[in-house]
Amino acid sequence: MGAHISIPMYQRAVKQRYRLVGLKCLKCGKINFPPKAGCKYCGNFDQFEEAQLSGKGKVYSYTIIAGAGAPPEFSEEAAYRRFYPVVLVELDEGPRIVAQLVDVEKDQVEIGMPVELVIRRIYTEEDVIRYGYKFRPKKD
Q: pLDDT > 90: what percent of the chain?
């Protein structure tokens, strides 16, 4: 059994899960993703506007997750693939986010590699398929 995320909690995060919508702080100008109640850069709590992120960026860092090291909600994928790359992506707009890298072999992952957002199946819980963002190498 993986980490439980209720349907209402999952639905509240649809903008960030499917569209990469963050919050731009109107005091310091930085984009917070995922959105939080306060700006992680300057502490502002009341002056934000939504910011649509492009979904394009580059690999800032990465690791390869092996079957035994996968979180429970990813055990199905780990059993199928035996490994998968997880990357820290620095988006063109500045925020860094962690996600799985798909459509690539583990020995092809490189720091600085251009990547782009894709929406894919993450896992199934209580017979409900949960989708979210992953990244793939950018196609020219």
A: 54
Q: Does domain 55-140 have CATH number 2.60.120?
A: no
Element holding 81 (H helix, E strand):
helix 75-81
pLDDT given at position 49:
96
- For the beta sheet containing 128-137, the strands, ordered from the edge strand earlier in sequence to the opposite edge, are 96-100, 83-91, 56-66, 114-125, 128-137
| Contacts (Cβ under 8 Å, ≥6 apart) of 53 | 20, 21, 22, 31, 33, 91, 93, 95
Report yes or no: 123 and 71 within 8 Å, Cβ to Cβ: no
Counting every residue written for the chain, the total comes to 140
- pTM of the full predicted structure? 0.79
d(CA 133, CA 140): 20
Rounded CA gap, 16 and 57, in Å?
Answer: 16
pLDDT tens profile 46-82: 999 999 999 999 999 999 987 666 666 566 666 666 7
DSSP 101: B
Amino acid identity, residue 103?
Answer: D
- Residue 61 CA to its chain's centroid (Å): 13
